[in-house]
Amino acid sequence: MKFWNGNKTPSRQQYEREILDAALKATATKGPYAIEESRTEYPLAEDEASVFRSKGFDIFGTVAGNQKLANEQKILIPLPLMKGILGYRILIVRKADAQKFAAIKSAGELKKLRMGIPSTWADAGLFRHNGYPVVEKGSFDDLFQRLENNEFDYVTFGANEVTGVFTERAAKSGKLVIEPSLLVYYPFPLVFYVNPQQPAVADRITEGVKTISTNGELDKIFNRYYGDVLGQLNLPTRTRITLENPILPKEMANFKPAI
Length: 259
Known about the structure:
By secondary structure, the protein is an alpha/beta fold. The chain contains nine helices and twelve strands. It has two domains: about 1-85 and about 190-230 and about 245-250, D-Maltodextrin-Binding Protein, domain 2 (3-Layer(aba) Sandwich), CATH 3.40.190; about 85-185, Periplasmic binding protein-like II (D-Maltodextrin-Binding Protein, domain 2, 3-Layer(aba) Sandwich).
């Protein structure tokens, strides 16, 4: 099974590989399997869009409604893999601006500031739809240098990944901090999409994800990766700003986070 696992943070790559493996193990009666994983980066939107059509992958994980796939044939498996945690967005800001962000209590105040995001990332359009100024350019590699250079005012990451991203990429200079008081939320479930030429793969993964969602295995994996992190970020005490997600597929219109 050819699994594309690029264009995401290392913690998500590891998590999604483990979920896929668990789903396949849960359906072992359907036969043996081998996962051929690629973490190749495709920074151009048209390259990511063609992972099934021209690159020959069988499956990959992304946010439901990823607009780069809008005109592509694909099979959506509408089962959330990460309990909706990607939609709990935590800000990274310049340390010099910490007091400015601590004073924000409403969406209107946050909309006065610029959100930075690498080119082609799925949530750029979502923020624009909700009236937020977005600076979309560059790559994940240069994102934090550009934040330090005042090209924009903040970046956001899912609660599942913000601590790891900050430690690995943003902390070194001492000029940036994880903002402790704000939480931007929108429904943003992580799902698997399957090559339209592989309906049997879609059926097996659907059965497997349903099985691990009900037998506690998905909870076990999720808590091992993210249980401690959620407590450290104090999500319930943060000022919550809620956004609408216009790209949520109709199959997941009633999605609710399970955190």
